[in-house]
Amino acid sequence: MAVAQVALAVPLRRLFDYLIPANLNCRVGMRVSVPFGRQKLVGFVVNITETSEYPEHKLKQVLTCFDDIPLMNSAQMAMLNWLCQYYLCPPGEVFINLLPKKLKQGDAAQLVSEPIWQLNQPQSADFSNRAKQQAALYQYLQTHGATAQSLLKQAGFSKAIINQLDKKQLITTIDVLALPPKALKINLSPYQLHPQQNNAIKQIESTEGFKTYLLEGVTGSGKTEVYMQLMAKVLAKGQQVLILVPEIGLTPQTLKRFQARFECEIAILHSELNDSERHNAWLKASKGLAPIVLGTRSAVLVPTPNLGLIILDEEHDSSYKQQDGLRYNARDVAIKRAASENCKIILGSATPSLESLNNAQQGRFVHLTMLERAQKNPPPKPQLLDIKDQPLQAGLAYGVVQAIEHHINQGNQVLIFLNRRGFSPALICHECGWVCQCNRCEQHFTFHKALAQVVCHHCGDMAKPPMQCAECGSTQIIDWGIGTEQLADWLCEKFPQAKPIRIDRDSVRRKGELENKLSAITQGEHQIMIGTQMLAKGHHFPNLTLTVVVNIDSALYSSDFRAVEKMAQLLVQVGGRAGREEKPGQVILQTHFPEHEYLQTLIHKGYPALQQKLLAEREAMHLPPFYFWAILRLESVKQDKIIEITEIIEQLFSQQIQPHYQNVELLASMPAPQEKRAGKYRYLMIFQTNKRSMLNAAMQQLIMSLEQNSFSQQVRWTLDIDPQELN
Question: I want to staple 295 with a disulfide (CB 3.0 to 4.6 A). Which of 110, 269, 607, 650 is the partner?
Fold first, then answer.
């Protein structure tokens, strides 16, 4: 008998056996329909065997096979199997949930039709001064001819702009299958490489096969140009390139640079795509129709038949770590994938993570550095501004306001960084000190003035702002602290001529809004930008000469041992936005603790010196990257139940698992830093060892014990391998 071992989208860490009927051509890597209880599910064939641990008469049959050829080859299947084993997750999380929605549902693995837009008539059309985007789209179609809607979106034209031209009957659509892919054309670079860029390219090109390169280049040193020079060689051989960026906000800018150099099909994958766009992009990558695949975290697992190079930009960024479902780290998976497909991988960053730096120092990665800017302008040296006892206006010191005014009057742009959304972090009673709290999280609500709501940034609950105090009945409710919304309002009043613009998750909710705002900034329509870390990473604003960081103090005394590393990375990244062209830049950091040793090391000796200091501390304290961690997270609506079960698991670990894996220890068993969230109590159990394989084996045993014990069904538990945060 032929038995298919099938992965299903169910929360069980096992495969399910089904008989393969003689009339079905069922192979590994194909999607199948199978009966599961009273329903039919789409499954993925992970293995085919001739035996089963169950008797033949108890096995149900595969109903249908959706594919003529496998969606994955043997190397890709091996990669996904490794994911299951390393992250100890249910196979369905890997083999089913990582597919685009249409493939999950059993739709054919074929490109779906999409509108192709073309001009109604070739004559010119008149547009008002306010319709710049419409005029640009009209011009684009005049130049390029009939173009698929997805490619127009890639070029920066939103669906709203397309619809406006359609309403004016200036363009029309032909509904056919996606246009054939563009022929590859590589344009020459307009830049002259500096010696350090040349050296990096030569070193990377000097080897064949798999190798990991850590490319550390100061902001503005021309890392993107190095990527493109290397990509050109790989693409010319007919191979594919996979490029990963940490956030959606970086995709449009990165895409425009690549489109200018490489005229070819670029498959884009990120969370803002609709189902058809994601389906087509995934298939273009997996069928080899797209030489370049560009995307955020999940793109690391998109199959490519002929991969020649992986580039992972801003490798230090915590966005590469998935925090729910399959808790993988895209950086680690990308390295494993490069090894399995025998290609090179480049990890680029101005502020490498301590994990990557340690790997480079241990000889696992090749460490390349570019310490000079392409424009010869040295990165600005940050200035610490002591704000103790200083009057602040919307969180800004008088000296900062003067500096903003000076740079604006020079015709330059200013970036003000505040990593706190909303109008103010809390509403409090001015008479008794009561704080307006979310009952489900026991954390203060954030006040959002534009929404006229208080919002919990932990569980998403919203409510109307209170009119009076719940404790004493007073109507003296005041906002406490500063958020980006309040800062933007104040700056609009103070500098209306500079047209301040706010960029955070609240202000760019609609599709295409971030792209439009970044475009307006680049075109010089706004002189002041107020933003969270969305603005800190990778963006290039030629006219930006001043960066102000409003508040850096919270990281200096955080319970998270990674907080200082993240703060330093953010400061270097934010500061690196200023002075990237001919004009010199200035960076001001507001702090109550200017003498703090971490800040002094960063300012006077630089990020590499701080890295070495932090690495020495981590090694002395047996923390990652010198020790490996796994966190078992437990949550329940009943606090006493979660405490009781945590104690049972502690006992189970010490009696049944630790005797066999003596290197593995239970470092801590404690409430999470935020103990209550969305009505549930949360506990952490942190396991550590200096041997990764030992940790994996111990956690596998622990999971098997938890799944066999009925008590574990009374709490929700999840396992996080190589966690990036404690919460």
Answer: 269
